[in-house]
Amino acid sequence: MKTRLIQLLNEGGESWDYELIDKLLAEYGKSGDYWKWMVRFWMVELSCGGIFNIVKAEADDGSHFAKGKVLYRYDISDFGKARIEELLEA
Q1: Is the pTM of this model over 0.85?
Q2: Which CATH number do you get for residue 40?
Q3: Which residues contact 50 (CB under 8 A, 6 or more apart)?
Q4: CA dihedral for 31, 8, 16, 83, sign (positive or negative)
Q5: The organism sits in which domain of life (predicted)?
Q6: Closest to 20 (Cα-Cα) out of 68, 81, 74, 57
Q7: Which of 1, 58, 78, 84 has the most CB atoms in a 10 Å sphere around its CB?
Q8: Which residues, listed in sequence order, are joined to residue 74 by a DSSP beta bridge?
Q9: Which domain holds residue 72?
Q10: pLDDT tens track of the chain, all 90 residues?
């Protein structure tokens, strides 16, 4: 699922975290808080690992996760793009 998350961002360009989560969970038939927060955790990992860039952050009005939680808009980094290329060649 984590690899597919990277592919989704690579294919779709800049996206909000909740947009990526909705797409990923729908594809895998998953739902609920556990999966939503797990995918958010993966995004943090991918950002810390240099695969994702955070291009914008704003406070949630309560319609996505919870009022006051931070929403992130991500883009894939050049390093992330190179990594995707390597994975697809293998």
Answers
A1: yes
A2: 1.10.10.10
A3: 77, 79, 80
A4: positive
A5: Archaea
A6: 74
A7: 84
A8: 15, 54
A9: 2-89
A10: 998 999 999 999 999 999 999 999 999 999 999 999 999 999 999 999 999 999 999 999 999 999 999 999 999 999 999 988 887 775
